[in-house]
Amino acid sequence: MGLLDNFEKGLERAVNGAFAKTFRSGLQPVEITAALKREIDTKAAVVSRDRVLVPNTFRVRMAPADHDRMASLGPALIDELVDLVQKHAASQRFQFAGGITIDLQADPALTVGIVQVDSRNVKGQVAWTPVLDVNGKRYPILKGRTVLGRGSEADVTLDDTGASRRHAEVQWDGSRARVRDLGSTNGTQLNGAPVKEAVLEPDSVITIGRSRIVFRVLAQAPAGESPRRVDPATERHDMGGFWGPAE
Question: Which parts of the sequence are annotated with region: Disordered (predicted)?
């Protein structure tokens, strides 16, 4: 399976269900991922035998009508795009100078269905942001415990009759995550197998009733940071502080 096929499979999660109705015509999300992949491959700069630096800040321009439809997906689409950029870079053993930023912008000069990507290398710190993707919605995980369930007291409320009021919890200590069933009636599954408590790896899938919950860790630029643009030609001997993609 080619890399573009992998991108297409990943984007299916972002356009399932209600999202699919948004994309009957005009620009498709998978076309954005293909454009981002081409931009990364085209701008890859060899800085040493073992290091290839690629852009980490992207401005994705599209017609206003396309932008309105993409914006209707909310943060879930951006998270999906960041995740897929991360995976593509990891598969090619590319490296970033800092966290990944993707900004969707309306451009009246472009016609419907056309996408243009501008990119930069921006040096900065990486904020590893854990999130739960539940039916196209993003829920950031705070340090400590995040309870999932049908009850109003849950941190992430599931509209699912197969879920208990306090069904399971995700624990995050700032670097690692675990999932723990809270004595639920119907049990919890991790990647298709029943689980009581286990470590959560990135892209793990928690199943509660009919709900599919994906755990992700996104490499993003910290909020409020003033990053510095990187010129690969002048950074050949200063790669020690560069972050590579997650393995």
Answer: 224-247
